[in-house]
Amino acid sequence: MQFKPERWIDPNCTDVKEASQPFSLGLRACVGRNFAFVEMSSILAKVLYTYDLELVDQNLDWENDSHCHIMWWKAPVHVVFRPRLSKGEQ
């Protein structure tokens, strides 16, 4: 018998978002879940309002460079953050 992990790899694998439940489920789920989501949304909104984002590699094909084996391996995404200029500074 030989170890062949590829026998369990589905070539048509799709990302299953329900596979990870970081806040747990049910009656005893994390009480701070909603606060965490509001906090993440606020931080993301502030970053997008404050900075212009640009991919370092303009030819990046993120979907094709990501792989699904036992767990998702996602290709790195390198981004440059440049402070936004106000209308008077442009």
Describe it for me?
InterPro entries: Cyt_P450, Cyt_P450_CS, Cyt_P450_sf, Cytochrome_P450_monoxygenase. It is a single chain. With 90 residues, this protein is an alpha+beta fold. It has helices at 33-50, 62-65; strands at residues 51-55, 67-68, 72-73, 79-83. Strands 1-4 form a two-stranded antiparallel ribbon. Strands 2-3 form a two-stranded antiparallel sheet.
Task: Indicate the topology.
Elements: H1 33-50, E1 51-55, H2 62-65, E2 67-68, E3 72-73, E4 79-83
Antiparallel strand pairs: 1-4, 2-3
Protein name: Cytochrome P450
Cofactor: heme
GO molecular function: heme binding; iron ion binding; monooxygenase activity; oxidoreductase activity, acting on paired donors, with incorporation or reduction of molecular oxygen
Summarize the structure.
The chain has 90 residues and is α+β, with helices and mostly antiparallel strands. The chain is built from 2 helices and 4 strands; from the N terminus they run H-E-H-E-E-E. InterPro entries: Cyt_P450 (IPR001128), Cyt_P450_CS (IPR017972), Cyt_P450_sf (IPR036396), Cytochrome_P450_monoxygenase (IPR050121).
Strand order across the largest sheet: 1-4
Please summarize the sheet with the most strands.
Answer: 2 strands, antiparallel
Overall pLDDT score = 82
Gap between N and C termini: 68 Å
Report the helical percentage.
10-25%
Shape: flat
Instruction: State the low-pLDDT regions, or none.
Output: none
Keywords: Heme, Iron, Metal-binding, Monooxygenase, Oxidoreductase
Family: Belongs to the cytochrome P450 family.
Protein name: Cytochrome P450
InterPro entries: Cyt_P450, Cyt_P450_CS, Cyt_P450_sf, Cytochrome_P450_monoxygenase
